[in-house]
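Objective 1.3, modelling of assemblies. Example input:
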Amino acid sequence: MISRSIAYLALAGAVFAGAVAAAPPPKAAVTISLPGDAGFAFKPGSGVEGAQRYCLTCHSSAYVSTQPPLTKTQWTAEVTKMRKAYGAAIPDDAASAIVDYLTATYGKS
Amino acid sequence: MNRLEFLASAGAAALTPDVTLPMENGVRPIAAFPQKRPLIVLSPRPPQLETPFDVFDGDALTPNDAFFVRWHLAAIPQSVDAASHRIAVTGAVERPLSLSLDDLAKMPTAEVVAINQCSGNSRGFFAPRVPGGQWANGAMGNARWTGVRLRDVLDRAGLKASAKQVQFNGLEKPVLAVTPAFKKSLDVDVARGDDVIVAYLMNGRPLPLLNGYPVRLVVPGWYATYWVKMLSGITVLDRDDDNFWMKTAYRIPATPNASVEPGATGFATVPIGKMNVRSFATNVADGASLAAGTIALRGIAFDGGSGIARVEFSTDAQATWHEAALEPEMGKYGFRRWNARWDAKPGTYAIAVRATANDGSVQSNASIWNPGGYMRNTIETYKVTVA
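Predicted structure (tokens):
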């Protein structure tokens, strides 16, 4: 393996004289383990079940909790974007309840 | 399994005490994700990790383990085999290709130092605030990228005369099949630029998986949205890309400075492109207390690739400006470090930093506003007390 790499580098150096000297591309298989949502959760409140059921499908609660306080109009726009642009399958009544939860918990009037 | 056990087994350090970013609702945990030092967690899933700003007071090249992380879609491969990874080159080409990293190794090497900055870096400082990822100023980093020129890849495939844009996608997948896959496109003339590279090394090392291992696109001068990670597909289009991530997302007002009046609607938009000029002090923080005497000020400046012509600082609320000394540049796309000395008497001061780029653009006090929260580059100010 080592001798092959050296032979290969020599070949590359000969063919591409003047190219930047650099390490070769990686060959390894890399595995990591992401922590999921550990340590993050929606605040309790009326309607939190809908947020947990639908919002958490695609992203952590931090997508919500780190926002500045948003108006009901703004939260409605966000939920609509999730449904229309990203395809979240949130029924109308559930979407309405989620907007109310977000506005009451992470919003402003 | 409790949270700490889970984090330990997942290879992530336990959450350490929170940091509070200087914005409403700015409390964030700090955690070490795989291959990363402890960073500011904007979201754990998809991972969005901000670089603590004091890192930028160190070397002009941002360490790989401190480099910010931003993914759009949560189905990110957590295991990637470089040996079996392929980049498919298809579409309006004469010879469709399936390139391995070994194939790239046989091509001429290209290298560039370039800043990777999120389009929404500093979004949390917009006034009025806008929804979106609430970054402070740390969604950026500067690295030496090594790989091959994208142009060489495209030439190997042979662009057809009808080629108009080049579309890129990676291994990042949406959770829901109906969610638009993350794809970004560049005009052919941009894609064929001298400095656009398919990079397999970052500061001389393999990329951290969270920064796109084993290979990502590097588009110097352009916002990070185009720097597709875990690059697996290059599709040459004979039309302008109309996918969601080009046609709807990452659009800026087609106005000077990408700015509109807060609340404005109905304005024309264009895809975001090159970065605007910015500068920061890296060794003074807003609210700092400093000792009277000669104070060393230093920081960084950059733009979208014309290079930095001048950095000035003010200590009297911008009544007078003084030129800072620039360190040698690492190409036109990297952080340009600046240094200055200030003989400070006791008092309270507003330090300001202003950069001018070689293309003549200069930072101003006018705050850019657009509903996406993109391209903030207002003059940075730091209120300090000298005693």
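Chain A touches chain B at residues 8, 12, 16, 19-40, 57-60, 62-63, 65-70, 74, 77-78, 85-89 (CB under 8 Å).
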